[in-house]
Amino acid sequence: MRLIQFAVFFSIVLTIYSFVNYYIFSRGLRTFEQGSLLRTFYISGFWLLASTFILGRVLEKVYLSHLSDLFTWLGSFWLAAMLYLFLAVVLVDIVRLANFFVPFLHQFDETFLFRNPQWITIGIATTVFFVVLAGHINALHPRIHSITIDTGLESEERNELRIVMASDIHLGTIISTNRLSKIVSQINELQPEVVLFAGDVVDEDLAPVIRQNLGQLLTKIKAPMGIIGSTGNHEYIGGADAAVKYLSTHGLTILRDSMIQLTDKVYVAGREDIESKRFGGVTRKSLKEISASRPEGSFLIVLDHQPRAIPEAMENKAGLVLSGHTHHGQMWPLNYITTAMFPVSWGHKLFEETHVYVSSGLGTWGPPVRIGNRPEIVVFTLLFNK
Hints:
alpha/beta, Purple Acid Phosphatase, chain A, domain 2, 2 domains, 6-stranded mixed sheet, 18% strand
């Protein structure tokens, strides 16, 4: 059943991917003269780029190497370019459709661009190139977001607890040694007492993580009270047991429908990803079951990768829910979709007495590009009365 679900899912994705690429290609092809050298370059260059993402993903499975890395990188950038080329072509077609009903383009017939339409295609492609480049630079520079929460609780141990939280690092071919080294340095500079990862620490395929020994870099994170995480959908897509085992052997405590006591007043519960049934055949426990042993008058932090179970967290009087998954769309205008899909797409929101924070993520999935939002590391300071 699981194999059939994957086959259906990827068949749909491949069909959409092929249709979008053909739509972009066919519109651009019209602007080049038959038999011209530019037309030949356009045809060969377009389909070479359009095939790189699929080739990279296949090669990662059968021949993990520098060649697979090259195709994966090119293909990932192409995904971002494809989105904005698609939007540009749709916009052009809307203008053409408007002109069909209310002719107005004839007044531009003698302009240079209308006599040389290939330059419209070249101009759009050049603009998209610089947009994607700017988005890549943006994706490399996470911001630090600081939030203070007064728990209203008395603690015999401390006045405050300093937490660094991140989600959606997506370690793999794209987020690899250099990026992870910088992430570790940034986390250490914040001097956390504990680090919390809200899922998708690794991307689907664990092989690139192992090949580059990225786990060794994770061990360099300095947090006296440990590094605690939960599973995300990408751990499950690639095989949650293997991912958790790897992360656990490199210093992370992954809570799988379980809870631990962090201080005299603070407990941390980590939930299996809500897609665990679909991708792993695992039905996750209720938060009530997970937190049954928590005493009254304590503060519960819930790591739940996807921000879909907020009402359940409220019912169980969770103090803070930490999620990710949305990437806040990662690239405009997809943030409008995630905003419509989730109670919170990004940021801090209070639901009665339950604080919810949904991170835009620290890494990227697919394109190493962020347009319209920034990656982030979040610092929480929990305050107590002593």
